[in-house]
Amino acid sequence: MWCASCLASACAGCACNLCTSAASAVTRRSARLAYCGLFAASLILSFLLRQFAAPLLHHIPWINAFEHTPPDEWFQMNAVLRVSLGNFLFFAIFAIMMIGIKDQNDRRDAWHHGGWIAKIAVWAVLIVLMFCVPNIVITIYEVLSKFGSGLFLLVQVVMLLDFTNNWNDSWVEKDEQKWEIALLVVTVVCYLSTFAFSGVLFMWFNPSGHDCGLNVFFIVMTLILAFAFAIVALHPQVNGSIMPASVISVYCAYLCYTSLSSEPDDYECNGLHMHSKQVSMSALILGMLTTVLSVVYSAVRAGSSTTFLSPPSSPRSGAKNPLLGDEETGKGDSKESEPRPVSYSYTFFHLIFALASMYSAMLLTGWTSAMSEKSELMDVGWTTVWVRICTEWVTAALYIWTLIAPLLFPDRDFS
Predict the structure, then answer these.
(1) Which residue, of 36, 156, 194, 258, has the greatest Cβ tally within 10 A?
(2) Which of residues 297 and 250 earns the better pLDDT score?
(3) Residue of 22, 86, 18, 32 whose CA lies nearest to 357
(4) How many angstroms separate the CA atoms of 299 and 295, rounded?
């Protein structure tokens, strides 16, 4: 029980620090950034507990309820999943509470933007309580997290497609030669990067003297997809553009690299171990920071998109709203009888953070049981390899679909 009290005190202390540094300064406009800070704090806490909490969890009887104590890797994974579950419940509860909000006169609009000391206290209590639930609850959550993480990856792909199309359209609409040259430069750079990167992948993941047919298949398929994107986008019957095709191509090459680099170090076709030393603590911290930035950006970008996330009463997305737009400034000068519609779906915003909580847990546990993974490595294993390569293929399929869907269904509006 002493160890459990120490763990609870650490979580409570973290929450109090967040209260004093952030809650008092949160305004309506910065509310989304505050949610990001809370989410980032949960990721940092997960990482720290993953590294240092195993000796404490050994002494908690309802966690270490085994006849033979499992290895430290199991306790590390268990700590990450418990923090993730607390974070997931916090955002899932808010997602349910915010269902149906259409204008800023709704009382729940103030709940979404204010009350930060109470929110942080609830968040901390939920995380502490998750260390009191039995292991069967964590096992069920681990299974559900795999599906939730897949949904989050799908949302990431949709947001990338939306971003590239908006980027291309914004430059084309300027109708100036310098922007057309800029589009050409970006396209050329992206395709050169794709082909050069693929060549590096051949050298690293197809070492001579080994039969690495699976790695070759992954790399060749990535190159085929890059050519397919260009061919379909430039087809005269397709209303496409070569610049988004080039950006999606380089992204697919990156996904291919992350997939191959996640292969176990003892796999003979993983040539990275010949070019870099064993993963160190500093590399793990750098990788974690990168994960924090990418997941938080994806969640905020998804929650602020008005293309498919806005409630029916909000304006259409043609206004090109910024990430933290002026709609967040408050109810404005309009009369109370003319309530301002909310600028984005609060429910979907919190749902994205809930799914991102599941995704971060899978990143830190390697998408599988910690007993089969090396404790010093993060995000490594065959499950991770296939998740990421499938993400690449889903990205390609969705992009091709956005190009050919208007031809297959000419009577439907895809704008």
Answers:
(1) 194
(2) 250
(3) 86
(4) 6
